[in-house]
Amino acid sequence: MFVEEYVQMLEMSVQGRKQYVEENQHVIQQLLENVGHESAELRDQLNYRLFLQLLTENSLTEASIHEMVERLSSIKGLVFNLGEKDASSVFQRSFSALFLAAIVNADRQLCYLTNEELDALAQNAITLLTKEQDLRSFVSAEQGWAHSIANTSELLCAIIQHPKFPIRYTAQILQAIRTNFWKGYVFTDDEEERFCNIIEALLAKGIDEALFIEWTEQAFDRLEMVAFERGYDAVWFKARTNQLNVAKTLYFYLKFANRSDKLRGIISIFIQRWIKLN
Fold first, then answer.
1. How far is CA 137 from CA 17, 21, 66, 183, in A?
2. pTM for this one?
3. pLDDT band for position 276 (50/70/90)?
4. 16-33: average pLDDT
5. Which end of the chain is more exposed for a tag (fewer CB within 10 A), N or C?
6. What's the rounded mean pLDDT across residues 6-30?
7. Helical packing angle, 62-72 and 26-33, nearest 10°
8. Which residues share a beta bridge with 140?
9. Nearest to 103 by CA among 154, 173, 45, 144
10. What is the reported pLDDT for 1?
11. How far apart are CA 31 and CA 2, in angstroms?
């Protein structure tokens, strides 16, 4: 039933959609219930697409946006069954992050979200990035993309770029990125670019470059320490690959932007040192 309703709504005019939502509040509940649907066609092409249409057209009330944020940032959304691997719950977490990223980006103009809401969002987004164990990107033709790590990174970027970003979470965000290097998985679908987008967004906030230099040094120091303690095992090699991919991407991001010369120089030294095994 709701599939036909979605199709009809997508074919309406902007004013028609807005009026329809005003008169049929169950649409908001349907959007929320289908955030993490297992069908890629329903989840991506209908549910998420309709949500974006309504959001960009200002057809969602302030109350509806608060309701979405409360639901999607909770155990029903971002941290739903967190820790599961190879399970359909990843779609709920991942697309909750994607919905919330769109809301946070829009809120830079709307100014609906409270400090408390941004704070809770930041905490749960960091928790998800740190503890997510389902690292799959493309799952299947029927289920589409999971990409929880990428979508959570998008959410964190949106939070960082928001005027109310709680800057005290900077160190936790950087630690969450580093945690992903050591999950025994090599990222293959440009996740390193998403991590670097987070770092660029933090740098744009004017945070002291020294913090990022320390983070880089500690990340490579851990590679050396783990190699000394237990040797070059599979987890170590995958961590090295992830770390070098992020370092190389960040180096060129900074070079093309012509910024953070000292950080770029430190990254270059570590890349040269770790680009091949001795």
1. 33, 33, 29, 15
2. 0.96
3. confident
4. 94
5. C
6. 94
7. 20
8. 144
9. 154
10. 58
11. 10
